[in-house]
Amino acid sequence: MSTFRSGSLACLKLICRSELGQYFPDFLPSYTFPIGTRSVASPENYQAFSISPIFFHTASQKDEQTTCADFLLGSGEEGEEPERSGTLILVEGSAIEGSSERFPGREVPEVHEAYFPAQNSMVSLNMPFIMTRTSLKKKFFSCCVLIFLLFAIVCVWKEKKKGNYYEFLKLQNKEYQMLQGLEKLAMSSSSQPGSSSSTHNPQKNIQALGGPKAKLGAAFQVWDKDSSSKNLAPRLQTIRKNYLNMNKYKVTYKGPGPGVKFSAEALLCHLRDHVNISMIEATDFPFNTSDWEGYLPQEDIRTKAGPWGRCAVVSSAGSLKSSRLGREIDDHDAVLRFNGAPTVKFQQDVGTKTTIRLVNSQLVTTEAGFLKDSLYNEGILIVWDPSVYHSDIPKWYRNPDYSFFNNFKSYRKLHPDQPFYILKPQMPWELWDIIQEISSELIQPNPPSSGMLGIAIMMSLCDQVDIYEFLPSKRKTDVCYYYQRYFDSACTMGAYHPLLFEKNMVKHLNLGTDEDIYLLGKATLPGFRTIRCGA
User: N vs C: which end of the chain shows fewer Cβ within 10 Å?
Assistant: First the structure.
């Protein structure tokens, strides 16, 4: 700490430059203090002082940090020649150049701050002026405060985005009473003569498809089958428009619609008749060449898989966390899972059984653990890869979205006894055509999601398909996967895939109740074998 000594008066003229290279502030206070002393000052301290016009004394900035130019010691009158000049630099080790040879810049190795008393108290030179160095402790404290604030902001953001991981241990009185009433209503309905569950008679339920269903109150809203892109957040609306303009897969849809109305029964028949759910066979070119000999399964998937009665399609949604649906899921005849969704450590919520695992070509191509992870060794594997719109197999083979073929062969060598099928590339686009046909607006020209493909596959193999957390339940969350902590509303509403419109279709076909969706996240669809379609 040093003290200014008394002497003749002068006026401090100071100019600072911001990171943007603009002068800051435009007006600085004018103070009297002894000539022959040098000081440096921090612009933040000027706010408490009176303001007076200053001379503009330009200086060039050699780095992007905030610096201050020369200060001038003069008589205090605008336009007068300064009596003495010094150098004022705010940043450690920063050098600036003066605007003239008379006032050259200096390099100051440390930052100093001058604390002046209020201007109206500067009536006498007998009052000492104190100059203190900016301590490292102060800098450290400022950094700590900044880090704390950033940490607090991140925590608040995460808390806002965080999904509801925990079950409702206690429902509010109104909710509890309503749910009990619904359960009693369901029990009395099932106990009436001639009634039967969908498990035993799926065809009976199909006849009731599209009929009146119990509606939940305003506090128990579930997915609306007429949802539109207007329901999307602005960010997702923008993404959707970008994909519509991009049209990566050269989609040229010329079918009916959009907005064709089907009853649930008619739509089921339409799906069954127009979506060919089949796998590539060893007789399909170029898979019938010597390069592929022995790699494709010899048996049709319907020989290996099914026919099954009740099947479960388990999404990877974050809302499965704390659902305690594991036992119910394992009670099905067959269970389909997606990509790298694990069961270990999550058995209570998602069960343990895996009969079929549908994986995308990106995972097979790029996932380092695909060839080694035992997670993939259970059940039947099916891989799918997007093609250009309605490409045949040879054209798709020459230009796959991900060239997964080498890893497919490597996996088959390691696990020759495990069935591993390749979904025909035409199937996703046949399904996409129907989703576009029934949707009231243009959908993303990208293939359907793995979830929708898995649902269609199981409808071809099972009499009844229970789908878990494809339509979000009361546990709805922006957490994408139950086994990760990745947040994005696109995982529920869709961005790349036309997920919103897929959910509309599933809701339209749902055999179950809104209570099943709200409480369990479960939608129930019939298998194609059980439906009766007219000629």
Answer: C
Rounded (5°) CA angle 143-148-152: 150
Cα–Cα distance between 56 and 15 in angstroms, integer? 7
Please check whether residues 31 and 55 belong to one and the same domain. yes
Domain assignment present for 535: no
Distance CA 324, CA 533 (A): 37
Left, alpha or beta for 279 (phi > 0: left; psi -120 to 50: alpha)? beta
Same domain for 15 and 56: yes
159 confidence band (pLDDT: 50, 70, 90): low
How much is the pLDDT for 257?
85
Q: How many CB atoms lie within 10 A of CB 21?
A: 10
State the burial class of residue 378 (Cβ atoms within 10 Å of its Cβ: 0-12, 13-18, 19+). Answer: middle
Is pLDDT larger for residue 178 or for residue 435? 435
**How far apart, in whole angstroms, are the C-alpha atoms of residue 362 and residue 245?**
23
Token output for 497: 């895939």
* Same structural domain, 412 and 438: yes
Q: Is residue 188 within 8 Å of residue 483, measured between CB atoms?
A: no
CB-side neighbour CA atoms (13 Å) of 271: 32
Domain range enclosing 232: 173-529
Is there a domain that residue 224 lies in? Answer: yes
Q: Are residues 428 and 509 in the same domain?
A: yes
Q: Note the pLDDT tens digit of each residue in 345-394.
A: 999 999 999 999 999 999 999 988 999 999 999 999 999 999 999 999 99
Residue 492's pLDDT band, with cuts at 50, 70 and 90, is: confident
Distance separating alpha carbons of residues 28 and 16, to the nearest angstrom: 9
Say if residue 300 is in the same domain as residue 371. Answer: yes
Question: Considering only 59-63, 288-292, 527-531, which range has the smallest mean pLDDT?
Answer: 59-63
Q: Could you tell me if 354 and 335 are in contact, meaning their C-beta atoms sit under 8 angstroms apart?
A: yes
**Lowest-pLDDT range of 16-25, 170-179, 328-337:** 16-25
Cβ proximity of 97 and 59 under 8 Å:
yes
pLDDT at 97 exceeding the cut of 50: no
Domains identified in the chain, total number: 3
367 and 508 assigned to the same domain: yes
Cα-based distances in Å from 160 to 391, 442, 505: 44, 32, 30
Name which residue leads in pLDDT, 83 or 380.
Answer: 380
